[in-house]
Write a structure and sequence with these properties.
The protein is of the alpha/beta class and 537 residues long. The protein folds into four domains: 128 residues, Response regulator (Rossmann fold, 3-Layer(aba) Sandwich), CATH 3.40.50; 157 residues, Reverse transcriptase/Diguanylate cyclase domain (Alpha-Beta Plaits, 2-Layer Sandwich); 105 residues, no CATH class; 83 residues, Arc Repressor Mutant, subunit A. It contains 23 helices and eleven strands.
Length: 537
Amino acid sequence: MYGMLVVDDEKWTVQSICESIDWASADITGVYAAHNVEEAIRVFGERRIDLLLADIEMRGGSGLDLVAWVNEHRPDTETIVLTGHANFEYAQRALQLDCFAYMLKPVDYGVLFDTVARALRGVKQQQEWNADYEVLRTYKTLWEQQAPVLTERFWQDLLARRIAASPGVLDETLARYRLPLTHRDAAMPVLVSVEHWHMEMSTQDEAIMEFALRKAAEEIILGDMGGETVQDRGGALWLLIWQRDVATDVAQVERRCRQFIEAAHTYFHCSLSCYIGRATALGQLADSHRQLVELERNSVLSSREVIRFPAEAEQDRPAASLPAAVPDFIEWGALLDNSQLETFRQRMAHLYAQLEDELHPSADSLLQMYHGLVYLFSRALHRKGSSLEAIRTVLLDRDTAMRSLRHLREWTHKALAQLETLLDVQLTSDQNEWIEKVKRYIDEHLHENVSRQELAQHVFLNPSYLSRLFKRETGVSISDYMLERRMKLAGKRLAESDQRIGDIAESIGFNHFSHFRKMFKKTFGVSPQEYRRQSSK
């Protein structure tokens, strides 16, 4: 329960106090004795002492000196001092040391018991307060430690539509995460897309570099603008720039993005692009997220660029050349990617019905529709690995399609019917097909230094998007997968052939034997020579 230390150089006094009073009835189960300051300090090192009862005048040190030591080293211990002389200086010093009581000898044991019991009640109360405070401090510390993780999870869920975007639910969730925002606030999303690392890195090294990029983006792009950096569920880096009293200058954001691109190229050994979306209410951020991801995925040839959505060319196009109903080609492309052809037909039928309401759609309107659909159909064929030749004659029949709105609609139905056969809606998802195509390409080119850019072009995807997709689906990065396949092939050749180790290293794309040896030992735990010896046994 509680412990008390009695200190006096008169041994019979100590023994009498310890044994003549029923301290257990006051919840004091440990009563300890010491006869000088040195012994007392040693007891403090060995026992838990909640109360100190000390004589002032002792040989080998004053009890007041001991109280001063206790205040410094054991501040939770309550102190009571005893003395045989009514000395004012002693009383004044005891008061300065914040002693609970100053008592004169000979002390009445009943009074002493009551004094100790009152002191102990204070100790108990203080310990309860300390315990409550410690719990609060623990929770506060845990919250402070977890707040960044919880906040990022909130933004991830919002971007992925895992949180209801209704004003009430959104305000309640923002308040729960202590974010100084409401559903009325808006944000401008910026997607940072790493296209190419200029040096070979492991997954761990790449994670470290991505963390450094995130901090640099906070400093260079966000800077004095309020906002948040978030890594979405797919691993992409996003900046959300708050739009409050004054709308953010998009041109300023572009300038900062270009500055960040140059800094990343110079200091972080990578090429990246920034995709800037429209400022939108927090409840609609998921739509902006989807639009920028699609824009990034389709930007195969862009590198070290700042790209705005919608593209500048679309923004500057004269309104007179646009039809009243414009298809959302990004959404339509996503429908084809996911083999949702029935939904695609419904969108198309609705659009043509709107175009008919225009009575006389312009030739420019029909031409834009034609080129947009040719692009979508061609892209879908490429992604499924089908040949464009099988539908080339239909797709490129521009003269027939451009005669009238009716002819364009018939051309669309005909092209879509042929496309449906080639796409084969029973195939596995596009994402799995892209991963398998990348794996096959890597296996066929193990002897070459294949870049991520080259792999992305092979499957018509943005390099950054492909990298995140590959890691999400396989659990390893592209570079680690390539290393694993190369090492597996090297081990096979070492075990099954007498080929020189240097020739084996060169045959799988390693120009420097020392680098090959280092990677091999990292993979198998032994050198290539030792691996061959063990295999021969």
